[in-house]
Every structure is written in C-alpha cells, then in structure tokens.
Design a protein that fits this description.
2 copies of one chain form a homodimer. Chain A is an alpha/beta fold. Chain A is built from 11 helices and 13 strands.
Chain lengths: 341, 341
C-alpha cells in the first residue's frame, strides 16, 4: 500500500567490519525476533563477530532464497562505511536488493545507485520519508488496536509491542505487529518510519499503518517518543491520534528520573500523570481507550528485586505491571488485561 | 540561518488569470500586511482583478527594485497553471526569482527549472521541507515568546499573531512575527513551514524559528493546527514544545462546534478544557507559561452582538477576550494582558 515500506525477504544479514555486538543491534534483533526470515550472515574478512546463523556469501544466500541484504550494523554516526562498498556491490551483482537504516542514503552513493539501476535492483533506505501518505481522516476503523506509549524514549516500547504481539499469537489471537521505527520495520518486514514522515501526514501515516480490519483482529503498534519528550512529543501525539488505540500499555524504566540525553532539566512524569495525559488525548479519537497496564523495564535489578518492584507498582496503581523481558505470571496478567474487553 | 526560508524582497505580486478575490488570498494578505514590500501587481491580459497596487511588468518591477515574483493566487487544487508559464519565464528573464506556495513544485517544471539554472535565478517552493533542521535541545532561551493556539484550524491564529505583533510594535515593544505557514512566511519574508517539516525535527524547527534573544524582546509565533485536531495535533504539540511560550493566546471561532471538514465526529473542546490541556503541555518546557486571553473570531455576528459575546466570555473566563479584526478596547486589554509580566 502507498506509504508503507515493504522489505524483500528473506534477508542476508551484513555486519561488515563491525566486531562489537553493541553496534550490531539490528542484526541481533533480526536474528532474535525473525530467524525464519534470515537465511544467513555475512561479514568482511577478519571480522570475528558471529550471529550464529549460517555464514553465506551473497551468491550462496541468493541460491537459498534470500531477496535482500540488510545492513545490520550502525557504527557511530550512522554513516555508510566506504570499506563496505565492494561487498554491497557484490550483493547487488548476486541479485540481492539492499536494505539500510543508516543516516546516509544508499541512493546518494553514485557507484551503488549506478549499479542498482544497471542490475534492476532496489536500494531501500528506511529513513527516507515515504511518499504518498494522506492527511488523517479521523474516521473510526474496525478491529482492535494496542499502542505502546512511554514516559521517555529508549525504554522498551518496541520490545513490549513485539512481546505482546507474540503472546497474543500464542493464545490464538489474530494479530499484526505494526512497526514505526527502523529496527521494528526490519523485524516486521514492513512499516512506516514515523520520525521520517512529513508532519502534516503524521496521524495519516498511523491510520494507513493500522487499517480497517476484522472486529476480532488486533494491531499491536510500536510506540515512538513520548508525550513528555521536548523533541519528539509531536511524533508521539500524531501516532497516538492516528492509531486510535483501544488499549494503551505504558512503558517506563524503573529508576529513570529524567529524559535520557537532556540533562536534569526534564524530570519524567509520574506514571499516574502519564496515564492521565495519554488517556485525555487517546479518548479524543477513541472514547473507549483504556490503559491496560504498565511495562516496566527492570533491567537494572536482580530478579527478586524486580519481582518486588513489579508487585508493588501493580498494587499501587491497581494495574498489571510486568517486565516483558522477564515474562512470568505478571506478564500473563498484563496480556489478560490487554485482551479483556 | 539553516532551515529558515528567506524570501528575496520586495515582491511583484502575480495574480495570473484568477479573477475571483477568494482565490487571491495570498496577494491580498501581502497587500494588507506588508504593502511596503510590494512594488506592484501583475495579471495576465484580460484579468479584471486589481489589488490597488501599481500595475507593473516584471521588467518595470525589477527597475523599481523588486527581487522576486510571488504567485499570489491559489486555484482549486493548488496546482501551477500551464497558462502562467510564459509569464513566469518572463519574470525569470527580467531578473526576478519566483516564490510559490503551490502544492506542485516550481522546480518540478522542467522549462522553469532549466530557465532558472541558465539565468542564475532561484525557484523558491515554500511547501518544500526545509533541510538542515536540528532535533530540539529543550534548552531554555532568553527573550519572551507568545504563541497563538486554537481549538481548531482556520479560525484566526495567523491573523491574531499578526495583530498582536503590530500592537506590540505600536507600543514600542521590540517584536518579531514568526511565521509557520505559507501565507505567514510570505508576509514575514521568512519562516519555517511547520507542516512540511519532517516530524523528528518539529520542535527543533520551532526552536530555530524563535532563537535566543534580548530579555525584553518578544517573538509572536503563528500557531498551527490544534491539539484537538485528529490530523494536525502532532504539528501543534511540536510547535508548542519548541516555542517554549511564556504567553499563549487561545483562538476560537464563536459558534463553531466541530472540527472543520471532519463532519460531526469531532466536537470542539470547551475553552476551559483547551486552556487546561495547552498549559499542561506548555509548562513541560516553560513552567511560567500562562494563557493571557482569548482571541474570538466573531465574523458571523453584528457589531453589537459581537461586543456582547466578547464581554460575556471575558466575564465567564476571567480573561480578556477580543476579536482582533474588530479591535477596540477589548483588544487593548488583551494586549495589556499579554505584555504584563
């Protein structure tokens, strides 16, 4: 559909010369969440990093059905490395498209652009604003929608949405994970990078991303930013309005007190205030919107501490409170609360 | 500065073959608000519409100092008319740049693009997303800022901001009108079209638009959309956060009950609810933010009815309430309230 990026799968995951797994999050995320769409991995000679997939050249990957090579690493600065060019050209020659979430566009590299044109291959830059998106209509759509929202960026909205979608599926619920960021789009194989959308079309993009569906179908939508974030709140509100969620799951990192990267000028809101403001906006487009529970990132805690914090927060707020990374009965209760009508 | 569109002035206003003043709002707005930057007007032969400025050909306008021709009309659909091409080429040949707020880009018309390149002239498309905008820093800036906000689109946010900036100036206050939409940018000669900004940079664009200033300097910023609008709330919130307003003026049209163009599914909020939600967001970035008063569009009322409505609303809300188009003592009270610290 117009405006939605669709990625040719399965993938060959390219990690180039990046040996530090900390810079290979995209590749690791794809391996963990959609191994069925990854035929193999490929690195430059001498790179010791391995993902645990079959090591394949582009030609071998193509023979095994791969449709595209995904650049699965993001060096500091997010720029395409000149050292990778020969490898990327080899992939194009082997019949693979190239998928990139780098800041610098593949299409702006003349040698890649020329080779892709000559070979009839696609260069897919996930950060490029997708064309053809409409202004939002505000019209209610059928089907159920869940949106993960947060007190801040980078605390688990994508992971929570993926975990909930997987849990819904395990219960036999018809569900689609709807991706709104670069890594999410690679995992889902499709989606819209909300932060790259021209702002007039923000809510319209969210409408296109979770279209009219069967009444018992769920879209689980990856949230972006935060209504409380001094730079990204606009993206969050456009996504919230266009998604028309029936259910919100509020994500927070235990112990985080300030907006990450903004010094101490921006304290995070209380969970109660965050629930209130999100519901106020969500009910503008869907009067039945409710917060089903809290997804609490407890990565900094020992298991018994985490369990105590989750129990205390659930008690305090009167809502299920779970860490999807830890799972367990509290996560089951969160899933129950999301699905209970 | 990077990201801000700057227009070469003064202008020659071009109205083409458009004889209906209803489609010449840009030209009329420029004539009314910045006659000192309009050396003349120019129409195609046979068009009876006159703006009241000197009628000049592009060459004559150039001799009188004109730097650019502004397309001052917007036919239905917002597309560039093939009938205008010879006139636009004549303007380029005469040494004028061309400024357009049309949906279709000047630069996408090969004959114009080629002529501009050959002649060293600029084609300035105000709807194009400006490059080079930063992510918002959220850091407080010096100087005072006023933002007009609204219960809906198209009810007077631009007019209110222009009127307040003019009134501030008349009182000897150092003030800049900061334009965020196509017509506002033409009137101000510079600005950023917020609806064309990539959403990651929304609040950052607003920060760039009203930079650090002297403590007693005011930026009066043209609002966009509405926090209650199902399509444009994201733009409104990004602009609100990035503007860090000290003062908000809430704009509303008397009698309007629903979001314009969205049927009856989206009732407008009460003024009290609108004040509350705007302050909640504004105080996230500026704890001192306050609503100084209401700008009420009473175009549908007779003068005595309007006066009664303005007085009743001011009494009910305990805030100055004025119609800038009508001016008068109630508008003076609104200006007082904006400037009182």
């Amino acid at each position: 559909m117009s405006g939605i990026i669709e990625l040719p799968r399965p993938f060959l995951l390219f990690i180039g010369d990046v040996a530090d797994p900390g810079y290979a999050k995209t590749a690791l995320g794809l391996r963990d969440w959609t191994p069925e769409h990854c035929v193999g991995e490929w690195a430059l000679p001498g790179n010791p990093l391995r993902l645990g997939l079959p090591v394949l050249t582009p030609s071998e990957a193509r023979e095994q059905g791969a449709k595209s090579l995904v650049i699965g690493v993001a060096p500091i600065g997010g720029a395409l490395q000149p050292l990778w060019l020969d490898a990327l050209l080899e992939a194009l020659e082997a019949g693979l498209d190239i998928v990139s979430g780098m800041h610098s566009a593949l299409a702006d590299v003349p040698v890649l652009s020329a080779a892709a044109t000559r070979l009839g291959r696609r260069l897919i830059d996930i950060r490029r604003p997708p064309p053809g998106l409409p202004v939002a209509t505000g019209q209610r759509r059928r089907g159920k929608r869940l949106l993960t929202v947060g007190t801040d960026c980078a605390l688990g909205k994508k992971y929570t949405a993926l975990s909930l979608a997987r849990a819904f599926q395990a219960r036999g619920v018809a569900v689609d994970f709807r991706a709104t960021g670069q890594t999410g789009i690679m995992i889902a194989g499709r989606g819209i990078p909300m932060d790259a959308v021209v702002s007039d079309f923000l809510a319209g993009a969210a409408e296109v991303l979770s279209p009219d569906a069967a009444p018992d179908h769920w879209d689980v939508i990856e949230g972006q930013g935060s209504l409380f974030h001094p730079a990204y709140a606009g993206v969050s509100l456009g996504l919230l309005h266009g998604s028309q969620p029936d259910v919100l799951v509020l994500c927070h990192e235990h112990g985080r007190e300030h907006v990450i990267g903004y010094g101490d000028g921006y304290p995070l809101p209380s969970l109660e205030d965050a629930i209130g403001l999100h519901l106020q906006h969500a009910r503008r487009v869907n009067p039945d919107a409710r917060v089903a529970g809290i997804s609490l990132n407890t990565a900094g805690l020992a298991p018994e501490e985490a369990a105590a914090v989750l129990a205390a927060e659930a008690e305090r707020l009167g809502l299920p409170c779970a860490d999807p990374v830890r799972g367990g009965p509290s996560f089951d209760r969160l899933v129950d609360a999301c699905l209970s009508a």
